[in-house]
Write a structure and sequence with these properties.
12 helices; alpha/beta
Length: 256
């Protein structure tokens, strides 16, 4: 009976150490050892692998959780056939994350509804899964947070906060012009991140019109110089998905 109690103690120890996957697969591997299918070392190695995989998965989920994504969609959910203008290979290459290692930026430019945010998020999810600190924020949210910090005399802290992310997605630049203060704050943030980290931007405004967002051609140029210096620009000249979904819905309704 001595043996049985050690088996129970082993189960308890594995639980105490939070090695739940080892505990749950222990019987399976003990049988494989008994039947001569696996050596002790192989069994132990495979059990420990299960734990490591689970640990990686937990870390990955926590990175994804804190990234503030508006939705979780990967490139596999993207309808590349509907947007033939997009080079699918280029997007998949960006998912290899070399751009993060090289501190390069990605800028998605195109009219509303063509899938810019979807692609930006799917690349950023990949970065978060690989445990790069990643954050998603809408441009106007970002500006109001920086403005508030400026008024409350804690701009330094807030700028540092947004400057530190390895990958920062700034969504929807250009729906509305911003005031002079905000434009300068944005310039400070982009300068802070320049050549240190990667910024992913989506915009519905062609670069030539950015002076209308940022108030002066000089400031717009200074921001663009830093964003475009090491970058991948993906221009999407397709139709709107959102429109397509509505039209599909509409034609279904009118057909029925």
């Amino acid at each position: 009976m001595g043996d049985m109690s050690n088996y129970t103690k082993l189960q308890n120890n594995l639980e105490e150490l939070n090695l739940i996957h080892m505990k749950n697969n222990l019987d399976k591997y003990l049988n494989l050892i008994k039947e001569g299918e696996k050596s002790f070392v192989d069994a132990l190695y495979e059990l420990s692998e299960l734990e490591i995989k689970a640990k990686e998965k937990r870390a990955m989920y926590s990175c994804v959780r804190v990234a503030n994504f508006p939705f979780l969609k990967g490139t596999e959910d993207f309808d590349f056939d509907f947007q033939p203008a997009i080079n699918k290979q280029e997007i998949l290459d960006l998912k290899s994350l070399r751009f993060v290692e090289n501190n390069e930026n990605i800028l998605f430019v195109g009219t509303p509804g063509v899938g810019k945010t979807h692609l930006a998020v799917s690349i950023a999810i990949e970065a978060a899964k690989h445990r790069y600190s990643t954050y998603f924020i809408n441009f106007y949210d970002l500006m109001s947070q920086l403005k508030k910090a400026l008024l409350e005399n804690r701009l330094e802290i807030r700028l540092k906060h947004f400057a530190k992310y390895k990958v920062l997605v700034i969504d929807e630049i250009g729906y509305l012009p911003i005031d002079n203060d905000s434009a300068n704050l944005f310039f400070q943030l982009i300068s802070e991140r320049y050549e240190k980290h990667s910024t992913i931007i989506t915009t519905n405004t062609p670069f030539s019109d950015w002076q209308e967002i940022f108030g002066t051609p000089m400031l717009a140029q200074a921001i663009l110089d830093r964003l475009l210096h090491h970058s991948h620009v993906i221009s999407i000249k397709g139709e709107s998905y959102r429109l397509k979904e509505k039209l599909d819905l509409f034609s279904n309704v009118s057909n029925s």
